[in-house]
Amino acid sequence: MAAQTEATVSVGHLDVGPDTHTAMSSGEYDMKDLLTLIESEHAEGLSLHPGDPPVVHLKGEPHRVEGPAITPENADSLFRALADTRLVRKFRSDGRIEFVHTFHGSQFRVDASAKDDSVYLDLHRLKAQPDAGPNDEERDDV
């Protein structure tokens, strides 16, 4: 596993670093705040694993968000913030699900898996940044 570094990143009015974090006063993370974080930082993805703080993937490098570890209960609520009832039922029956979630015009592939009775989430940005040009691999005429 790649080494994770600490990074200071911002969420609107919040700075995420050694002195602050995106956890609510209850110690739980909020999905809207986490998605805002990866949007504002143009991050490629986000890993939400119980027992660890959130990890933002920025320019190919994992950066651990300073804050408390995600609890199994918080991981479940984060998953339910992304998935509708049908997806939650399918996840509960299969133990794994992949779907697309849209937030502020950006699309993320959500990979959810069950391990040790907990939900593990990995989000990966699908939609290119507005200022990015087309990738040669995405063009049909190349």
What does it look like?
With 142 residues, the protein is an alpha+beta fold. It has helices spanning 31-40, 72-82, 85-94; strands at 5-6, 9-11, 14-16, 45-48, 55-58, 61-64, 96-103, 106-115, 118-125. Strands 1-6-5-4-9-8-7 form a seven-stranded mixed β-sheet. It has a two-stranded antiparallel sheet with strand order 2-3. It is globular, with a radius of gyration of 16 Å.
Question: What are the salient characteristics of this protein?
Answer:
Beta-Lactamase; alpha+beta; 7-stranded mixed sheet; disordered C terminus; 142 residues; two-stranded antiparallel ribbon
CATH architecture: 2-Layer Sandwich
In the CATH scheme, the class would be Alpha Beta
What's the SSE pattern? EEEHEEEHHEEE
Order of the strands making up the biggest sheet: 1-6-5-4-9-8-7
Question: How many H/I helices?
Answer: 3
Structural class: alpha+beta
What would you report as the Rg, rounded to the nearest angstrom?
A: 16 Å
Shape: globular
Distance between the termini: 35 Å
Q: Give the mean pLDDT.
A: 80
How many strand elements?
A: 9
Task: Give a quick rundown of the structure.
The chain is of the alpha+beta class. It has 3 helices and 9 strands; from the N terminus they run βββαβββααβββ.
